[in-house]
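Whiteboard transcription, Tuesday session. T.W. wrote the structure tokens on the left side:
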């Protein structure tokens, strides 16, 4: 059984551009943000740290689901089982954060859901670093891990940063519905807007979905699946 990537050196995981190194850096940042949120008293700074955590978690998960998990299903013998487990965790986190965003800051119900979400995020990190990513490393040489990392980073930089119940967990559906919503999410993050209603989500998805799905498909074809 391959060992966790948590304690491997940067060289052992393929260098700083490897998808394994990129994943691990994000995971460390998530953990630091959650710890900071726990240590802060109620107030604007604590809420700001929570929003930073949400934005990182959702853009990270979207890149995983769009680029990384399809590669695992394609290359790892039991990839379907492994990715299904992580996708279920992602859906639970999605539902909890959607509730958190509807509740008043500081309310007991909201605080309980934040604790549940953070516990699931930590479990998700362990499942990925201990079970899933070591299997991917067995299946790919370092140069392919770096190409996969470049594709992952491209998608992550334009991914949604908040929960959207209409977005499925797998491509092409997540690209068609999810990526257009990222534009609204990033405007929302910039100006501190409230969550979009269903009509806004539907309009954004309808206008931009087909175009963005084509871009995503092109990135995956050129960067991920290209063989020497």
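and on the right, the sequence the group agreed on:
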């Amino acid at each position: 059984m391959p060992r966790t990537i948590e304690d491997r050196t940067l060289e052992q995981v393929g260098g700083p551009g490897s998808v394994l190194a990129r994943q691990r850096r994000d995971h460390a940042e998530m953990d630091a943000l959650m710890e900071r949120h726990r240590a802060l008293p109620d107030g604007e700074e604590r809420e700001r740290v929570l929003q930073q955590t949400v934005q990182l978690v959702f853009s990270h998960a979207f890149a995983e689901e769009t680029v990384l998990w399809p590669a695992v299903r394609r290359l790892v013998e039991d990839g379907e089982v492994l990715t299904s487990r992580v996708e279920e965790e992602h859906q639970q986190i999605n539902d909890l954060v959607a509730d958190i965003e509807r509740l008043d800051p500081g309310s007991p119900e909201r605080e309980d859901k934040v604790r549940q979400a953070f516990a699931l995020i930590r479990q998700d990190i362990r499942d990925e670093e201990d079970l899933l990513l070591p299997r991917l490393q067995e299946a790919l040489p370092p140069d392919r891990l770096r190409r996969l990392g470049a594709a992952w980073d491209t998608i992550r930089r334009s991914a949604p940063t908040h929960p959207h119940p209409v977005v499925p967990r797998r491509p092409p559906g997540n690209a068609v519905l999810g990526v257009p919503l990222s534009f609204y999410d990033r405007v929302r993050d910039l100006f501190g807007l409230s969550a979009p209603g269903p009509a806004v989500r539907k309009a954004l998805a309808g206008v931009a979905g087909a175009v963005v799905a084509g871009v995503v498909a092109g990135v995956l074809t050129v960067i991920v699946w290209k063989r020497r």
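Someone added at the bottom: The first helix runs from residue 19 to 39.
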